[in-house]
Amino acid sequence: MRLTDEIAAYILQMLELAGDGEAELRRNELAEALGCVPSQINYVLTSRFTPEQGFIVESKRGGGGYIRIRRVKLERGVSPFMHVVNAVGDEISPVTAQAIIENLEDQGLISRNISRVMLAALSDQAYRDIPINIRDRVRASLLKQMLTALIT
Q1: Alpha carbon distance 68, 89 (integer Å)
Q2: Residues 57-66: pLDDT tens digits?
Q3: Which residues pair with 25 in a beta bridge?
Q4: Counting Cβ atoms within 10 Å, is residue 86 exposed (0-12), middle (13-18) or buried (19+)?
Q5: How is residue 126 annotated by DSSP?
Q6: Contact assessment for residue 110 and residue 150, using Cβ atoms and an 8 Å cutoff
Q7: pLDDT at 28 > cutoff 80
Q8: Which of 1, 9, 89, 101 is deepest in the core (most CB within 10 A)?
Q9: Other CB atoms within 10 Å distance of the CB of residue 23
Q10: DSSP state of 127
């Protein structure tokens, strides 16, 4: 297992143990416990614990600083797909679209087959005939339409 996977797994375990979907950690202490440098913790937080992946990360710097990670809690009656639709915005990169789709699959909200079709439809390869300056806008629009179609 790669170090980034170990760090992410450790943080996810902290979230599960907390029970309320919120964990507070200190970057230096976590880096020391996992035998890595604090910048590796930063990398994992910025790449794997994003709003698109269902997390909110808050940090307070300084001597008593901390990092607080929370799972996004959906309002009662709000479809998780609608939450993502609202979070997408007017443009989305292929990397961010992939993270969103993988998160939906990991949470069991879409099947592996649906995930594969969505990833193919949102890949840069699928947009090779579309001018570069509008690809991310078209990708965002298509992702929103696919997610809206999944709302039952």
Answers
A1: 25
A2: 877 766 656 7
A3: 67
A4: exposed
A5: G
A6: yes
A7: yes
A8: 101
A9: 19
A10: G
